[in-house]
Every structure is written in structure tokens, then in C-alpha cells.
Specification:
heterodimer, A: 284 residues, alpha/beta, D-Maltodextrin-Binding Protein, domain 2, 2 domains, seven-stranded mixed β-sheet, five-stranded mixed β-sheet, 39% helix, elongated, B: 225 residues, mainly alpha, MetI-like fold, 75% helix, 0% strand
Chain lengths: 284, 225
């Protein structure tokens, strides 16, 4: 009995398996050769850079320091800027960072407790190394109808939208809520708060004019863009617990020596002086 | 479980879908029936929201809707409040963000209809709107369902735009995708898993019900045979 193969209109157009295999070989050979020759043309891979996971408030601060570090030690360092919480999640899930510069102490401490990071080399290897302190400022645009920023501005009923960073996780957001609570303004203002994912986005909300004022980092307020478009008022330091920024070395790093060098460099007097100019309070 | 965020997300997706269909049906009809070189530019423009990363699109919207542009000032003058950080603002953002997901299936569906039918209708004196609503839409009803489903789901899963123009206000702009992100960021993976699972189960149920209905031959969105 003859077997009848089911056929589709497409079947007659199909190539026999042997023919298509030959064809694909014929196509892939030149492509393969091209890839191989490209691989030789590419420059030899340089030494893997030191990968730094850095809190969002360091974005305006760190790039020149990385450049200086490269000049003085020959070690190339690259930074990834994110909210400290996001970076912590990423490191917990194996992100290939060597060093973590957080905007607070709680996130690096979490990593130490999880056995994923350490502060080896410092007096206490289970406490993150404080490398700077953050400053909270109230910022408004120069063309704001509310006038220049001050604590009185926070009591002004015309203030409809106040931008803060997420207080559940962003260190500057926590500080903002603490300051508003100390001023006994939190309950009055809570319905008017708009919450940004991190402190850099908080700056965006108020710089774009969508929020009337913002409690942001001094590092953002001192960037050329924000400095030219607005004015800031430093929130008195006794109104919120200090924003201590801590660093840890990711335990799995293959570049521990380079990471230590970077930390020493960051804590050295000239670099600490540079941090002060960028809006962070030096610790040394 | 934050039911408020879930309800808000479903409301946002429903409102957005209705508005998108109201925009996309005439737009797709114009693109298919119309003539002129500028239509190609219009079609390209309607596909552009796919190109920009959602957070970048959100950033542009934030600036556009803010008081520093004439558009933003005009909207604020009409509504009495700025669009950013409000539910209405999210609707505007979602409509732009999901526009290609409504337009593309409709254009494909309308274009697949035999042009002879359209010509015949025109010869018999049918107006353009009559051609659209008694010919194109009923014949392309599967595309219409696809456009609605894609718009709805794409808005449910929207994150970057909401993150940028929302401001995370409970009941107004904290959608379920923002809530899940918050829970992950707070390292509360158990809560994030629960919320994400709820969202997946719910959307699966909606889709399965819809596709199940479509399988029944008698069913027809517009009630036409």
C-alpha cells in the first residue's frame, strides 16, 4: 500500500535537507572568516577596569575623581550610577562590581551581613567605611513664584508639589522626611509630596518645573545646570540624622588590591577636599 | 496586598484602551484609505513611541507637560493643575506610549480587506465614515480585538513612563508595576512575588476569557454578522 504524505503548499518550495545544509555552510564560511579577521583587527583587550557601583548622588562628583585616579595609579575605573538600593539588589544577585559606594551605611551593611561584601583593611571589617557625608538642601527654580528657598517656603500654602526621593529606600529621602518631621511639617505636607525613584530624579522633577520645590542633595544643586537655573537653602544639620555615605569591597572581587587603592585615594586629603567642593562633607 | 494599586492600574489601562481605539480607528482608516506622501510620514510618526526607551519618553513628557513649555502652561491653564503627577497625566503618557500597539494591528487588518469592496461601497455613494464603520471595522474585528488587548496589556505593564511622570502617589499614580518595583527595591522579594503573581494570574484570566469568547463563532464584537 502506498503511503500518502501530507503536504502543504509550502512543501514543494522547501529545500532538501542536504542542499540547505550545503547552502548554509556556503553562507556561513565567509561570515565566519569575517568574524575571525575582525577579532584580529580589534585592539587587544586592556586590563579589566575597576568596576565601581556608585550611588546616584555621586554622579556629578565621581567622574573627575576616577580620571585623577587613573592618572595617578594607571588603574582604569568605571562607575555605574544607580540608587543605592538598586545597586544592593544587583550585587546580591551577582553583579560584577568590585567596589560599592553607597549613599548611606544601611545598604553596605546589608551586603556585609549577607557575606557578600567587607571592609577588610579598616579597623572594623564589618562596618562600612564612611567616605563622606551628604547634605540635604531645599531647591527652587529662579523663576519660581514662591521666591528664594527658605524654611518658611515649606510653610507657604502656595507650595503645591514638593519633590523628595523615596523615603523607604533613598538615604536623602529618609533625611527629607526626618527634616520635615523635625519641623512638624510632615503631616501638613505629606499629601503634597511627590516621590522620585532616587535623588537625581528628584532634582529632575523640580528642575523641569513640575514640582514647586525639592529636597535634594547638595551635589545635585551644585551641578552647573542646577546652579544656573535655581537656588538652594541648606537644611540645618540638626534637623535630620547625618547622611553618612559608606563604602564596601565586594567580597568576590578579583581586583581587591586595586579596590583598596581606590578607597585610600578617595580618603586622601586632596580628594576629600575635592568632595567638599562638589557638595559632600569630607570625613578626613 | 495593595488592591488600590491594582484597581488604579486596571482603570488606567481601561481608560487608555478606550481613548486609543477612538484615536486609532480613524487614524488607521486614514492611513489605509487616504492618499498622499505625507501619510507615510504620519505612519512613521505613529510608530515612533516604540523607538524611545520608555523612561526617556517619560522624561520628554515631564518636560513638555511642565510649566516651562507653552503646551504645559496651556494645559495647566485649562485644567487648573499641571498634568504631571496626576492620573490624567498618566493617561496622556499611556496613550502616547501604547499608540503603536493600537495602530499597527488596525492598519494591518484594514489593509488586508479587498480594495474592491471599498471601491464598490464608494461607487454606491457611501461616505468615508460609513465605509469605516460598516465595512472596515466589522471585517477587521479580529484586528480590533488585537489592538484593544495589546493596548490594555501594554499599559498594564507600563513602567518607565509612569516612573518618570507619576511621582508615586498612592491612589493617583502608584500603579502595580511601580509597586512591584518598590517592593523589589525594598528587598521585600516575597511581597514583590505575590504582587507579580497576582498581576500575571489576573491578566492570564482576562486573556483566556477573551480568547475563549473569540473562539466561539457566534461571537462578534460589534454584533454584526
Amino acid at each position: 500500500m502506498q503511503r500518502i504524505e501530507p503536504s502543504t503548499p509550502f512543501e514543494s518550495n522547501r529545500l532538501s535537507p542536504r542542499l540547505s545544509a550545503r547552502l548554509s555552510l556556503r553562507i556561513s564560511k565567509p561570515i565566519l572568516l569575517m568574524c575571525l579577521s575582525l577579532a584580529f583587527l580589534l585592539p587587544a583587550p586592556a586590563q579589566t577596569p575597576l568596576r565601581v557601583a556608585a550611588a546616584a548622588d555621586l554622579e556629578p562628583v565621581l567622574p573627575p575623581i576616577l580620571e585623577l585616579f587613573h592618572q595617578s595609579t594607571g588603574i582604569r575605573a568605571e562607575a555605574t550610577y544607580q540608587a543605592s538600593a538598586m545597586l544592593t539588589t544587583q550585587i546580591m544577585n551577582g553583579a560584577p562590581f568590585d567596589l560599592f559606594l553607597s549613599a548611606d551605611l544601611s545598604y553596605p551593611k546589608k551586603l556585609i551581613d549577607a557575606g557578600l561584601a567587607d571592609a577588610a583593611g579598616s579597623t572594623d571589617s564589618t562596618t562600612p567605611i564612611t567616605y563622606a557625608k551628604g547634605t540635604l538642601v531645599l531647591w527652587t527654580r529662579k523663576d519660581s513664584a514662591l521666591g528664594p528657598p527658605s524654611l518658611d517656603l515649606l510653610r507657604n500654602p502656595a507650595l503645591k508639589r514638593l519633590a523628595i526621593a523615596n523615603p523607604d529606600r533613598a538615604p536623602y529621602g529618609r533625611a527629607a522626611v526626618a527634616a520635615l518631621t523635625s519641623l512638624k511639617l510632615y503631616d501638613a505636607l505629606s499629601a503634597r509630596l511627590v516621590t522620585a525613584e532616587n535623588i537625581a530624579q528628584g532634582a529632575q522633577f523640580v528642575d523641569s518645573g513640575n514640582a514647586d520645590a525639592g529636597l535634594i542633595s547638595l551635589t545635585s544643586a551644585l551641578t552647573p545646570r542646577m546652579a544656573s537655573s535655581g537656588a538652594f537653602f541648606v537644611i540645618p544639620r540638626d534637623l535630620y540624622p547625618p547622611i553618612q555615605q559608606g563604602a564596601v569591597i565586594v567580597t568576590n572581587t578579583t581586583q581587591r588590591a586595586a579596590a583598596h587603592k581606590f578607597l585610600d585615594f578617595l580618603l586622601s586629603p586632596p580628594i576629600q577636599a575635592q568632595l567638599a567642593k562638589s557638595g559632600l562633607t569630607p570625613v578626613n | 496586598m495593595d488592591w488600590q494599586a491594582l484597581a488604579l492600574t486596571l482603570k488606567l489601562a481601561s481608560v487608555t484602551t478606550v481613548i486609543l481605539l477612538a484615536i486609532a480607528i480613524p487614524l488607521a482608516s486614514l492611513l489605509v484609505l487616504g492618499r498622499g506622501r505625507w501619510l507615510a510620514a504620519l505612519e512613521a510618526l505613529a510608530a515612533l513611541p516604540l523607538v524611545l526607551p520608555p523612561t526617556v519618553l517619560g522624561f520628554f513628557l515631564l518636560v513638555l507637560l511642565g510649566p516651562r513649555t507653552a503646551v504645559g502652561r496651556g494645559i495647566t491653564a485649562i485644567l487648573g493643575h499641571p498634568l504631571a503627577f496626576s492620573f490624567d497625566g498618566l493617561v496622556v503618557g499611556s496613550v502616547i506610549y501604547s499608540l503603536p500597539f493600537a495602530v499597527q494591528p488596525l492598519v494591518a487588518g484594514f489593509a488586508a480587506i479587498d480594495p474592491a469592496l471599498v471601491d464598490a461601497a464608494r461607487l454606491l455613494g457611501a461616505s468615508s465614515s460609513r465605509i469605516v464603520f460598516t465595512l472596515l471595522v466589522p471585517l477587521a474585528r479580529r484586528s480590533l480585538v488585537a489592538a484593544a488587548v495589546l493596548s490594555f496589556l501594554h499599559t498594564v505593564g507600563e513602567f518607565g513612563v509612569v516612573l518618570m511622570i507619576g511621582g508615586n502617589i498612592p491612589g493617583a499614580t502608584r500603579t502595580i508595576s511601580i509597586l512591584i518595583f518598590d517592593q523589589v527595591e525594598a528587598l521585600d522579594y516575597a511581597a514583590a512575588n505575590r504582587t507579580a503573581l497576582l498581576l500575571l494570574v489576573l491578566c492570564f484570566a482576562i486573556l483566556a476569557a477573551l480568547y475563549g469568547l473569540r473562539k466561539r463563532a457566534a461571537w462578534n464584537v460589534w454584533g454584526w454578522k
